[in-house]
Amino acid sequence: MMISSLALCAALLAQDAKAQPVPSSRSFRFVYSAAIPEVAAGAKQARLWIPVPVDTPDQKITKLMVTASLGGQSASGASSTAGSIMAPTPDKLADSAREGIRFTVRDIKGGTGRSVCIETAGVPFSAELSFDVERHETKGGGKASPAELEELRQADMMIPLDGKVAAIAASLTTDPDPRATVRTLYEHTLERMKYDKPEGDKGWGRGDAEWACDAKFGNCTDFHSYFMGLARKKGIPARFEMGFSIPGGAEKELKVGGYHCWAYAWVEGHGWLPVDISEADRNPAKAEYFFGTLDADRVTMTGGRDLTLEPSPAEGVLNFFIYPYGEVDGKKLDNVTRAFKRINP
Asked: What are the backbone dihedrals phi and psi of residue 226, each rounded to the nearest 5 degrees, phi first?
């Protein structure tokens, strides 16, 4: 009888594996490219910040390399000179200065992840960060200190806990059980919000929870900021991660599109419970899956909101950090270019 039961269990698991082709883990190399292609004549300093991922319970990052090459549309006619830094793991990536290029690597304050600031003496340059990723499907869990949990119950600049967010949270009847409350907020957000990024509308994509209350649409940033505001107002710690969705397929190299983000809510007895509500909206058949599970088709770059980088950019605290940030002589640039790709082993 035991053998029959084991055989039945194995058959059911096999059927479930066929029904859910999402791999439990995957490996790839990620390439993050950015550039300041043009600098005005007479500039003294050009700086570019890019995010550097770190290990999490869901991913392992190895074989990091950051390279920078001088050149571009410059009045000085700079020659193409390369500098680079390498490390086996994120924590080993360190400062360097060579060939007219300075690399400054620091932990992000107010969140998770690291940043590298690449600096030149006022000439344009391109930069590339590449690293290996081993990523796992996750159902969350883990631990958090009382201080961390208390901090993640508080407001952020774009996620206030008064006004419209507070009013909507107060209107929602929730269960004393925290997991049931998170489920209610997940389903409410999924029902209320629509994934949409209309051209010409500048409101979406900032993760402004108050704006989302009225707009009822947006991208992943807006979905999860709205959800996090409701959760925090209900006394549930919630945190934010940004990264990229990684395409599958057998092709050796594939372009990766824009950023993606998701959230975690703290459930006592379980730990961090992941949710990807915008993906659930885009793929309703997986709405149940994305409550409590994240697939392996992603990489986390940074976590948190209201982030402080070192050296500090002129803009000061950043709402979030995923795309390259550039400035010349202390003024933010709008012409920074970016591109991303994944490479299969």
From this structure: -60, -50
- The DSSP line for 269-303 is TTEEEEE-HHHHHH-GGGTTTTBS-B-SSEEEEEE
CB-count burial class (<10 Å; 0-12, 13-18, 19+) for 302: buried
Classify residue 129 as exposed, middle or buried by CB count within 10 Å of its CB (0-12, 13-18, 19+): buried
Question: Tell me, what's the pLDDT at 252?
Answer: 98
Distance CA 76, CA 124 (A): 10
Q: Which two tokens stand for residue 121?
A: 């003496």
What pLDDT does 78 receive? 45
**Contacts of range 160-168, beta carbons closer than 8 Å, 24 or more positions apart:** 160/209, 160/210, 160/229, 161/229, 161/232, 161/233, 163/210, 164/210, 164/213, 164/214, 165/209, 165/210, 165/213, 165/226, 165/229, 165/230, 165/233, 166/233, 168/213, 168/230
- Two tokens at 269? 């007895």
Domains and CATH numbers, the chain: 25-135+305-343 (no CATH), 139-295 (3.10.620.30)
Write down the pLDDT at residue 80.
Answer: 64
The rounded distance, in Å, linking the Cα atoms of 45 and 42 is 9
pTM over 0.85: yes
Query: How many angstroms separate the Cα of 272 from the Cα of each of 99, 132, 137, 141, 294?
Result: 45, 25, 14, 5, 12
pLDDT at 340 over 60: yes
The DSSP line for 183-237 is: HHHHHHHHHH-EE---TT--STTS--HHHHHHH-EE-HHHHHHHHHHHHHHTT--
**In contact, 250 and 260? CB cutoff 8 Å:** no
Cβ count near 289 (within 10 Å) = 16
